[in-house]
Amino acid sequence: MPTPLSDNPSVSNPSAAPIISARGHLVTGSGFLPNHNVTLRITRAGEDISDYLAYVTEGDGDIHCELPDGVTGTLHIAATDHRRDPDGVCGRLWSNTYILVVG
What we know:
The chain is mainly β.
């Protein structure tokens, strides 16, 4: 079960957005809540449909996520650990959107 933000002293700036990048089929990132569920949102250029993939962060709040082999094209990738942000998409705090060309 995810740790409530108020009970997690290891998060130094709980409102700071996490950062992601990607290379090949590997998405990496930092600034997430430690040992916490993270959702990657993947949208292909020109499509209105997004795919959502679930991962868990490491103890230091980093992620290392392998994308499925069949994922190709120009991908717009963002991630959230489900912290609330009234100004964010769906009321959540999201990372930067990283554009990755695969294939």
